[in-house]
Amino acid sequence: MAKTDILLETGTNELEILEFYIDMPATETGPAERCHFGVNVAKVMQVIESPNLVHPESAEHPCFLGTIPLRNHILPVLDLATWLGLEKDDQKYDIVIVTEFSQTVSGFQVSGVTEIHRVGWGQVLSPDKFMSSFNDSCIIGIVEREDRFIQLLDLESILADLDPTLGGNIDETSAVATEAYAALVCDDSPTIRAMLDKILTTANFRHTIVQNGDEARKTLQQIKQIAHDEKRPVKDYVEIVISDIEMPLMDGFSLTKWIREDEDFKDTPVILYSSIITKELKHKGESVGANDQVSKPDLHLLPEKAIKLIEGNSA
To answer: Which of 128, 162, 196 lies at the terminal end of a domain, its last residue?
Structure first.
């Protein structure tokens, strides 16, 4: 399976997800069960048959199954069921989903794949409304499909759990602001929000962090009302917006498009970031008016880029 070009019409608040599943065996307390998951198609390089790797005893994490050669890569293969704490049914033919994001190529072993769905972020339900049999910190949303729920996985948080350096060296900020600039930040991942909070605090930013683009839009509307009531410019309350691209309810592209169409915020600098930003995808952010774009492995560069945009905007 090759990557498809998601969000052909940038700003439509849509994405394509690859649905896959993990089969769990029957137990004394219940029947066999199939758990359905999804991942952004833009992160998928291809789907291959599992080479039937066996977890090496010397591996630090029980989900690590070894490495395999693929094209010009030697990629690690992770047993997704083991990481999620699920007991997977033994099958002769498992599947490996090969992904590429955050400048990293990895394989995730699952029971099988079903199909690709094109959905609007507005259809993605909040995971906190559902009960789960495992730690759901890696679940960014739920998509309802007929007789099943598809749980969208935050693969970045999984890899960050195994390798904390994937977000860059957040202990060494790229710059420190001479005055406390006000930033609005939005990301649906608890892992990334904690990382951004540390980066921006170290860089002397006053920042508010929300969980998705729709929450950011509502926050900006509240700021606009306060600014109007106090007869002050909105930049007294927010000087830059820093946003993830993939988020439930409203993605970063749609948020940026809304900002550029709003009379009060149209000149507010916006930085978009994502684990899937490539040269081919950067034109999407540019088309909705993003001032800059950053790959998630380079999040430590955000303060320097934000300071330059804010100071350039006020010159």
So the answer is: 162
